[in-house]
Amino acid sequence: MTSKYILAISGNDIFSGGGLSADLATYTVNGLKGFVAVTCLTAVTEKGFEVFPVDGDIFSHQLDSLVDIDFSAIKLGLLPNVEIAEEALTFIKKQKGIPVVLDPVLVCKENHDLEVSALRDELIRFFPYVTIITPNLTEAQLLTQKTIKTLEDMKEAAQMLHRMGAQNVVIKGGNRFRKDQALDVFYDGQHFQMLDYPVLEKNNTGAGCTFASSIASQLVLGKTVQEAVREAKAFVYHAIEHSDDYGVKQNYER
């Protein structure tokens, strides 16, 4: 480990359950020094939950401000549009030899087909430059253009994402197949590993963000990718187990 500095390139959750709030909390729990480049702000308006991308020049200035920091890992969260994604990719390409975790957030945009299609193509460009991607089921379907209804479908989607350039893949299945079990599938290009924990009827807002930032933290701490994924799954489970009752309960996806 060259440093304890770790970066989150992610959005702000107005309710402070997910996004950069979850990332920084996870980094702190793991004894790491977290930095953030903010991609977007959020708010609840008459239209519902809205995402407001930061100005492209401001985002670029944020990344330029961090260029000399000796980061040991980077976690990528919500990239709200192609402009922000392109700036982030340029930054990632300059980071040599450190783990990068991509949480390819697409769900909040699934009703805007053209925007999702463009962002999907942009996110796929990240695959060769990141250590692992962590899509949920909906995101895996959007990325692969494949319907996922069974465990075998999840495995096939993971293989497809690997062929598309992802080195390692975790598809977060949540409790879609069994209401009492949260099942994720890890694939490293050769072997599958099932990550199966009981579903807890407690506040799990931000679980997906926490999962990805926990993987990044464990990689900084010297774990292998497979070990990091296993540790992150346990970390999220225990975080939900000890969570409070505030916030909106959601399936284990984001």
Percent strand: 15-25%
Mean pLDDT: 88
For the record, give the distance between the C-alpha atoms at the N and C termini, rounded to a whole number.
Answer: 28 Å
Q: What is the fourth-level CATH superfamily? A: Ribokinase
Estimated radius of gyration: 17 Å
CATH architecture: 3-Layer(aba) Sandwich
Helical content stands at 25-40%
Which structural class is indicated by helix and strand composition? alpha/beta
List keywords for this structure.
about 250 residues, UDP-N-acetylmuramoyl-L-alanine:D-glutamate ligase, five-stranded parallel β-sheet, three-stranded antiparallel β-sheet, 8 helices, about 20% strand, globular, disordered C terminus
Question: What report would you give on this structure?
Answer:
The protein is α/β, with parallel strands linked by helices. It is built from eight helices and ten strands. Helix 1 runs parallel beside helix 7 (207-220) and helix 2 runs parallel beside helix 3 (82-93). InterPro entries: HMP/HMP-P_kinase_dom, PM/HMP-P_kinase-1, Ribokinase-like.
Question: Any chance you could write out the topology, listing elements then pairs?
Answer:
Elements: E1 5-10, H1 19-29, E2 33-38, E3 40-45, E4 48-53, H2 56-65, E5 73-76, H3 82-93, E6 100-102, H4 113-124, E7 132-133, H5 137-144, H6 151-163, E8 169-172, E9 181-187, E10 192-198, H7 207-220, H8 225-241
Parallel strand pairs: 1-2, 1-5, 5-6, 6-7
Antiparallel strand pairs: 3-4, 8-9, 9-10
Helix pairs in contact: 1-7, 2-3, 5-6, 7-8
Summarize the structure.
The protein is an alpha/beta fold. It contains eight helices and ten strands.
